């Protein structure tokens, strides 16, 4: 997988909760400048680690149910899910190395 892909409230369970591999979910919003800065970094992580982790994005404005379910209060919020459960999370734009370590801690 070369880049992160979008999920919605309707596809979240299939794409994230039922995934065979860990999933890094980027909860973001169009109106969030730091979200735009972290997007290319997430695409790099997806490209380099796509054989071990799935990277997906969820627009919280268009998909409020999932954001509410995981108490996403600010964006970007990045949550790693493993076996259908959130296991690690960070809020705010992060450097690539921080995101790689976040993912690796869940592998």
TrEMBL record:
InterPro entries (UniProt xref): Thioredoxin (IPR005746), Thioredoxin-like_sf (IPR036249), Thioredoxin_domain (IPR013766)
Coiled coil region boundaries: none
Keyword Ribosomal protein part of the UniProt annotation: no
Pfam families: Thioredoxin (PF00085)
Highest taxon in the source lineage: Bacteria
Gene3D superfamilies, per the entry: Glutaredoxin
Keywords per UniProt: Disulfide bond, Electron transport, Redox-active center, Transport
Family membership: Belongs to the thioredoxin family.
Protein name: Thioredoxin
Organism whose genome encodes this protein: Rugosimonospora acidiphila
